[in-house]
Amino acid sequence: MVQERRYIRSSGWIEALVAVMMLVLAVSCREDTGRGGSAGLKDFVEKQDAGLFGYGGFLFRYSEGNCQLSFNRQRRQIRLQDDQQAGYLNVIFEKFPAPGENEASVEMRYKAGGDEIIYADKMGVVRVAEDKIWLWDAKDNLGVILPICW
Predict the structure, then answer these.
(1) Are the CB atoms for 77 and 91 separated by under 8 Å?
(2) Domains in the chain, number
(3) 140: domain range?
């Protein structure tokens, strides 16, 4: 005996419904992960102290009273460290960001707590003031505020 197969053709409404549901889900759960924005960015750009910002607060905060700042133009390097060298932030730029540039390639080494962390990526330039620059990586929710020495 031969079995007869029947195929039901949908009018496309099921596929359209699934597509709409997927779109709604994607938009409602999505956090802006572009270089210029994310959940922690609003809090970050309001900060005034130099240092490293992540996980909703400062991982390392520079203070003139108990920290040192060093700058090397040839290496394109800025280093912030506390007097005991228990915490530090060392940033090396591929090239210093020029006015109007919206991103910078950096290599960072920082110690906040017990471990040294190495980070290398492009960061968005999200704010520039007279004497400071705010760099942000939205995918890692990581920001750095540095004095403009160059």
Answers:
(1) yes
(2) 1
(3) 13-147
CA distance 65 to 1: 92
Evaluate whether residue 22 is within a structural domain.
yes
The reply to whether 82 falls in a domain is yes
**Residue with tokens 């005991």, as numbered in its chain:** 84
> How does pLDDT run along the chain (150 residues), one tens digit per residue?
565 655 455 555 455 444 444 444 443 333 443 444 456 899 999 999 999 999 889 999 999 999 999 999 999 999 999 998 899 999 999 999 988 899 999 999 999 878 899 999 999 999 999 899 999 999 999 999 999 988
d(CA 141, CA 126): 13
- Asked if residue 2 is part of any domain, the answer here is no
The three-class DSSP label of residue 34 is coil
Residue 4 maps to a domain: no
Residue 131, SS3? coil
Residues 33-63 as b or e (16 or more Cβ within 10 Å = b): eebeebebbeebeebeebbbbbeeebbbbbe
